[in-house]
Specification:
Elements: H1 23-33, E1 37-42, E2 45-51, H2 52-60, E3 78-81, H3 86-93, E4 100-103, E5 109-113, H4 115-120, E6 132-136, E7 139-143, E8 148-150, H5 153-185, H6 189-193, H7 204-226, H8 229-244, H9 251-254, H10 265-282, H11 290-319, H12 325-342, H13 352-359, H14 361-382
Parallel strand pairs: 3-4
Antiparallel strand pairs: 1-2, 4-5, 6-7, 7-8
Helix pairs in contact: 5-7, 5-14, 7-11, 8-12, 10-11
Length: 389
């Protein structure tokens, strides 16, 4: 079965000129791009095309090489969307003398289109850009900011709800464990849990309070490791590694990819936790003033040095685990879907709003806030405490 080819696969990436650029500069760009035309743009939008024929005409009429391009550019040209199939674009160009340029979904210039280029140039790999992803209860979600594939809005919202539920469960386990220990051994663990952190670390209660509060984060990570979503998370990383290395998306190849990724959100959480922990250590027993500021500076420097290593460690032991073949196959299917969707928009740059929407962050927050609101409602209706602060 032949793969469908789009204009995006056959574009000539000719650097554009501006209306006030000189004819000399336009000629240099034409040579650099290897085409017989150079697009003229304003604010990213094409407003004209300078062809070699028009350049020759300008010189024959006595134009100076330093004159601006604007008077000599052609304003009649074809704007062909880059998701147009090559066969359709070639048929159009075969019956017109107008120059043609490829535009993205927002009408911005992407590249020059020629009939010879559509027919004879080799297919280049799509410029997918930086890929981000999420593991959701419904499978893998991938995006390059322009397009997305896999688990949609529902999956992302369920991820937010799941993360909030795991954090809440960790709270319940720690608080429940404290009350059980108090009942069994008479140790006032809840008082230790709420002990003030005033820098008096030589007090047993403050040390125990720190340990108990830190245990919430540890239990949260352990709960995540126990769930299938950690395997989905690993499969997502492995497919992204394969795409970024230019490897074929087959089960045999993807199995060899690492499950730790340097751009994982776990690294950000690890950096925050590392900084807060080191700040406590370096401020131990220090009086207010320069000594405490020096402690914060040391914590910041060490965090900048080791946050990625610590994040990779947390990914390895907690937020990912070896995926099943079923999880890998799901991730491979999503990766192929992303590449298929991204091919027509190769090289396109998304707006900030589109990138934010496709990142999945908003959907995850909505899922977490939605579960929180539901629990608060149940608290009001049932008269019980569900959210422990």
């Amino acid at each position: 079965m032949n793969q469908k080819i789009f204009v995006a696969d056959k574009l000539q990436r000719v650097p554009p000129a501006y209306p006030d650029d000189s004819l000399l500069r336009a000629a240099e760009l034409m040579t650099q791009g290897g085409a017989s035309a150079v697009p003229i743009i304003e604010f990213g939008m094409p407003v004209g095309v300078l062809t070699e024929t028009r350049l020759r005409e300008a010189l024959q009429r006595g134009a100076n090489w330093l004159e601006p391009v604007a008077p000599w550019m052609e304003t009649d040209f074809l704007r062909i969307p880059i998701d147009t199939p090559v066969e359709e674009a070639a048929e159009t160009l075969a019956y017109t003398d107008q120059p043609a340029i490829g535009v993205d979904p927002w009408g911005r210039y992407v590249g020059v289109i020629t009939l010879a280029g559509l027919v004879a140039r080799p297919i280049s790999l799509p410029q997918v850009g930086m890929i981000g992803g999420m593991a959701t209860p419904l499978g893998v979600y991938l995006t390059n900011g322009v397009v997305s594939a896999g688990a949609g809005t529902l999956g992302l919202m369920l991820t937010g709800a799941l993360l909030f539920a795991l954090f809440l469960a960790a709270h319940w386990l720690v608080i429940g464990g404290m009350w059980w220990a108090q009942q069994q051994f008479g140790i006032p663990l809840y008082s230790y849990y709420n002990s003030p952190f005033a820098g008096q670390w030589f007090l047993f209660s403050d040390v125990m309070g720190l340990v108990l509060r830190s245990s919430i984060f540890v239990i949260f990570l352990l709960l995540m490791r126990m769930l299938p979503i950690s395997g989905t998370h690993a499969a997502e990383h492995m497919v992204v590694h394969a795409i970024e290395r230019g490897e074929p998306l087959t089960l045999e190849v993807v199995r060899r990819m690492p499950r730790v990724h340097p751009r994982c959100g776990t690294n950000l959480v690890a950096g925050i936790a590392l900084f807060l922990g080191l700040a406590k250590v370096f401020q131990f027993g220090a009086p207010e003033g320069d000594a405490r500021d020096f402690g914060l500076l040391m914590a910041l420097l060490l965090t900048l040095l080791f946050w990625r290593s610590f994040g990779g460690f947390l990914q390895w032991i907690a937020t990912t685990k070896p995926p099943t073949d079923k999880q890998l196959l799901n991730a491979i299917r999503v990766g192929e879907e992303l590449l298929r969707k991204a091919r027509p928009y190769s090289g396109a740059t998304p707006s900030f709003g589109l990138r934010l929407l496709n990142s999945g962050i908003l959907q995850i927050l909505i899922g977490a806030w939605g579960l929180m609101a539901l629990l608060y409602l149940l608290e009001a209706l049932l008269g019980v405490t569900l959210i422990i602060e």
